[in-house]
Amino acid sequence: MKKLYAVAALLSLVGLADALYLTIEHVTGQSVRCTIISGCSEVLSSPYAVVAGIPLAVIGAAAYFTVFSLAILALFGYRIAGTLLTPVVIAMFVVSLWLIYLQAFVIREFCQYCLLSAAITVALSVVVLISQRKKR
Amino acid sequence: MKRILPFIIILVVLGAALGSAWYLTRSIPASPTLVTPVAQSSGSPVSQNTPAQPQQPVVYGVPGAEPAHVLGPTNAPIRIEEFGDFECPPCGIFHPILDQMHTEFGDKLQITFREFPLVPTHQHALAAASAAEAAGLQGKFWEMHDLLYEHQNEWKKEFDVRPIFEGYAKQIGLDVTRYRSDMNGELVAQRIFQDGKRGHSLGVKGTPTVFMNGREVPFENLPAEKFRVVIQNELRSGGK
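ok -> structure tokens follow
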């Protein structure tokens, strides 16, 4: 059980770093603006990258930070944190599915770091599922 | 101690995340630093900082294509110059924003468009720039400019955009035979080249790059609500 929470904490740290990177890209316009050398991220510059004025990457970073905090608390024996972890990760999984759908069918471009985030969320979901099974 | 340790770890990670985000957003310049301003305003350093952003230097650069595509009065207090690429998604997003500002500020704005097609990045950017310039030779640049931006998503994935652009030419009432020969003509090619040369002399590296009264507006200030404030500040400082 403890191992699973440690894995979840590590995964969410990677997710947090990824989301922070996307936030910085978004805020500074590094890859949002089109350039001759690197081209632009059609995903980050799309209207879907912002929800109610907040870049999605920021929301993602907050979500990963939440998962990290819950996983660490659960690791140190706070039971309630382990229980809360499941709904948060499920919500992130659903949002990730929606974002993959947007990239594949609406924007029709993929962004590597957005896909990495989706992959981490999928991995987190697997970890949470296993921890749920072990509880029973 | 064991009860407090997780909170310490969480706080450390939070601090590291916020700290690195703060440091990186500050240390990466939002826009490429502009090369050597050609002329300085008579020796006195520019000191009137607007609250919204640190002041960018005034740049002059070489002239672009003449006559330029200009909307609004020549004596307008705010002169906006956009270097754009019709295939670039953020340029497509910026188009309605600039339109909205034009409606809101009216004759206080003068808008100039410069061609900056990113050729290796966008497959149809040059064709689109040529279509707009060819329309310009018949006095319909802005009509074509609007259609190209508004329908960007419809043509950018196509293999052959020429028939689509010809459709736009018909739609805005161009002489299509003349448009077709102008598209591939030297005059259009020269205009695009001249605008590109001006862009390079101003340090433009990407699109959209927007200058206001000779100063670059940082990319992150281009969303409508921020851009409006930038214009208001410039108006307040006397448009100088």
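Residues 79 and 110 of chain B are 5 Å apart (CA to CA).
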